[in-house]
Amino acid sequence: MTPFRAMRRGYEARFEPVERVVLAKVARDVAAMLREEAGLELFADDDPGPSSHPAPGKGQAWANGLLAPDELTDADLARLTGVTGVGRVPTDPAAQRLLPDASKDDADIADEFRRLTQNDVAQAKVDRLEAFAALLDLPSGEDAPEPLGRHGAPPPVRVPREDAEQFAGALTDVRLVIAERLGLKTDDQVMQLTDEIMWDRQAGREIPVATDGRAARRFWSGVFVAAGYAQETLMDVMLAELRGRRPLA
């Protein structure tokens, strides 16, 4: 992976094909986890919607999608008001890092904030994760370019300027989830892991074959560091461009 740099058509970096495939897959997995943990499937666009059958004892007055008050579900209320009746508290610690409590000291405030905002926050994260994955997807089909570009280099990943903040935000969410899975809680732990991975790469060490989980941890540590490198260099070039310190290439 090369660092991002500012070009006339956006910000560009070169990812190895495997880096693109893995990061896109992780982003979609995180999006799916968020949907389930936040309960977004209750409000999906393809949901059949409120029942059109008449309520017991109500006659035809409640047909055509109208329900009696005691028949309304949380999903029905959400479609009518945009607010869920109950804010689902994530059970996965990784989802909790992406959808944290608004208050650690007041449970009522935390519950109310979650009820009013969680669906929108979770859906926004899902949308940007899926857009991030789509941008990383390798071209396919008969008209797809060769996997290696000029001079044998992989084709660039080009992030439009208007999408750069969302791209960086998706990388943040990916890193938070991997950090939770790896048990990284402090900045010192992150720095130590990054140093280990970078040192191993410079030394040309391969991922070890192991049956005790060390190989898997090494793999995900590498993904975590790669996502961090992409995020850091993208943010650096964005800030430099805003400050007018770096001309376009």
Account of the protein in words:
It is a single chain. This protein has 249 residues and is mostly helical. It contains 7 helices and 3 strands. The chain has helices spanning 17-38, 74-81, 93-98, 107-136, 164-182, 187-202, 214-242; strands at residues 5-7, 10-14, 156-159. It has a 3-stranded antiparallel β-sheet, covered by helices on one side. α1 (17-38) runs antiparallel to α4 (107-136), α1 packs across α5 and α4 crosses α5. The longest helix has 30 residues, at 107-136. Residues 46-65 have low confidence and may be disordered.
Can you give keywords for this protein?
single chain; 249 residues; mainly alpha; 3-stranded antiparallel β-sheet; 3 strands; 5% strand
